[in-house]
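Hi W.,

Here's what went into the run:
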Amino acid sequence: MAISESSLKAKQLEASVVLGMEQFHRKSHFWGRLTISIVLVLTISLPLYLSFVLGFHPGWQPIMAGFAAYAAMVGYAWVMEPISYYPTLGVSGTYQAFLTGNISNMCLPSAAAAQNAIGAVPGTKKGEVTAALAIGAASLMNMSILMVIILAGSHLISIIPASIQEVFPYIVPAIFGGILAQFAVKKPVYGAVALAVGLTVNLMPIVAFLKGVVCILMTVAICIWVEKRKHSGAAI
Amino acid sequence: MEGAMQLANNPVLWIFSLLIIGVVVFQGITFIRLASRASESVGMSHSEVKTAIKVGTINAIGPSLGIMIVAVSLITLLGDPLTLMRIGIIGSAATESMGATIAASAFGTELGASDFGRHAFVTVVWVLCLGGSGWLLFTVLFTKSLGRMEKKVSDKSRRRGFSVMTIVSTAAMLAVFANFASGEVLKGYNTALAVAISAMTMVIVSFTASRKKHLSWLNEWSLGLSILAALSVSYYTL
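Here's what came out:
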């Protein structure tokens, strides 16, 4: 109910005012920071409530031990992921993707597919607005499916035959291959560079958490070099 | 285990969980609204806005189904509300199950073990909630600085005559997926096959869609079709 009401209101508002890109960014910062801050407060209040109101505090020692192990595994990603996905997600996409999660397997592919469908170039204003729309829609769809899973839960899984469930782990590799090809078709040179860099980096003994960054830096550097050569060649 | 499951389904957990999901939904609606208001100023037509929303929706179905199995296994270990809240916000099903396993072992037990009690459950909640906050905190604090950096780069490139930002964005996107795809290709025969079939299908669909004007709607379904093709081949070769 709440969703349909607010989307109705959204439609009325949408017709009334047109936003410039500058204003769009300002409003994105405001609403992005506000919503994420609220979620931050909520996520920290929950364990505080369980520990000190209900009185099931396990002691700080296991919490810190667990947190340290978790941070050692994914802590780099807290900083690296927002930075390395920023060029593709833009301001509004970053706020959305890092709240709703599933960035590499859902948000980025949805944004890329939408940009491809309407011919918007990533990194441009049109590309950013397209990404914002697609990620917002993907996030809402994801929430709806998640709610169904939680409500219908294990029953739902029991209807799907085991032989079909076995191929579910291949959804993610298929997404990666598909998106890579989608961009490579448009920019074959970039695609070839990226794939060569990707395979090399993955074959080399590089620490897992550095692979992504090394890949991005090398691919971007080579592609800029290629463009610069093309550009200066044309000028001469 | 029973005590932990009782606590895991405590109404207060449901309230927190639904509030968080509510904020995510509110954010999604807010940004769609903002973006469609901004669409005109970047030269997007009304039908392009609709297409973007439609494609976003379609392409969330595949990944959401992929999340399903991990989500269901988490439910049996952590209960409904915590699963909903953790998968609903940052943190994929995979990261969360890894975090829960780490937290349980830090408490000296295992997920689903008979001695996994209320205190162990609260340890898991602490670790997952603190762990997920890292991304949220960074995003709240530094997205603005990233925006300023981008502006500087694009201002500079305007003088140079070609848009560095466009190259960086496209190359970065390709690099991200080339890295992931390479990882999957090198992981084993089955995942390599899924990557290859999906990529081939995408190339075929993209070419078909660009060849004929009346087939351009295929672009909206290209990723879905590629995933389906890869899964069908995996189904018969497994």
